[in-house]
Amino acid sequence: MSEVTLSSLPKEIAGKLLEIGAVALRPNEPFTWTSGIKSPIYCDNRLTMAYPEIRDLIAEGFAAVIRANYPDVQVIAGTSTAGIPHAAWVAQKLNLPMAYIRDKAKGHGKQNQIEGRIEPGQKVIVIEDLISTGGSSLKAGLAVREAGAEVLSVLAIFTYQFESADAAFAAENMPIATLSSYTELIQAAVEAGKVGSGDVELLQSWRQDPQSFGR
Q1: Cβ 62 vs Cβ 69: under 8 Å
Q2: How remote is the C-alpha of 65 from its chain's centroid?
Q3: Range in 28-32, 55-59, 61-65, 167-171 with the lowest mean pLDDT
Q4: What distance in Å separates the CA atoms of residue 195 and residue 106, rounded to the nearest whole number?
Q5: How would you write 62-118 as a 3-class SS string?
Q6: Where are the beta strands (DSSP E) in the chain?
Q7: What pLDDT shows up at residue 111?
Q8: Which of 56, 161, 188, 202 has the most beta carbons within 10 angstroms of its beta carbon?
Q9: Do β-strands 41-43 and 23-25 pair in parallel, antiparallel, or remain unpaired?
Q10: C-alpha span between 49 and 86 (Å, rounded)
Q11: Phi and psi (nearest 5°) for 133?
Q12: 168 half-sphere exposure, CB direction, 13 A CA radius
């Protein structure tokens, strides 16, 4: 595919996620997360694997961000499990080594948490599919640090833009960036007629206080 334009990428990614149903918006019939939180949005970026054109757009988007901002990266590492395929495609585009990070060390064998190879002192980009609370993504980044490597950034396809997630990454001085965001998604959904303009305030209020939504 042709080289992506970083300025137009957030809107383009948001539109594609909506188009294939990787993101669904139901402001008046909220989903219920495992945590019990009522949410007007459900995001399953694993669906992007089924669409070659879209997964390549995402991979080229990641690659463009890395080329522009992190040219000295030495390893691409995916989070287990959703970040693994995207990390593999990005590593292939950049001709770089790839690894992946488990949520915890294995209980057998070498008891690895990091599979592949990340050497102390190497500069690493961590690839994730989604940033919600940020807990699992931050944990992956910290595991890379504990291995003695430097995390240049955690890069994700999409973020809900929760202030708590941003604060958690900031507290650990862990850089983070995403290809698209909740704000871009709402705008794309309105333009595509998937939600009414009257629902925008409701959708924005959820991001600001997800615990109280639907009560």
Answers
A1: no
A2: 13
A3: 28-32
A4: 44
A5: HHHHHHHHCCCCCEEEEECCCHHHHHHHHHHHHCCCEEEECCCCCCCCCCCCEECCC
A6: 23-25, 31-32, 38-39, 41-43, 75-79, 98-101, 114-115, 123-131, 150-159, 176-181
A7: 59
A8: 188
A9: antiparallel
A10: 9
A11: -75, -20
A12: 17
Instruction: Tell which residue, 96, 83, 39, 97, has the closest CA to residue 178.
Output: 83
With a cut of 70, say whether residue 5 has pLDDT above it.
yes
Side by side, which strands form the sheet with 150-159? 114-115, 98-101, 75-79, 123-131, 150-159, 176-181
User: How many angstroms separate the CA atoms of 114 and 88, rounded?
Assistant: 15
Q: Is the pLDDT of residue 169 over 80?
A: yes
Can you read off the two tokens belonging to residue 165? Answer: 């997630």
Task: Quote the CA–CA distance of 105 and 215 in Å, as a whole number.
Answer: 38
3-class DSSP state of 50: helix
| AA letter at 32 | T
Please name every residue paired with 154 in a beta bridge, in sequence order, or none if there are none: 126, 176
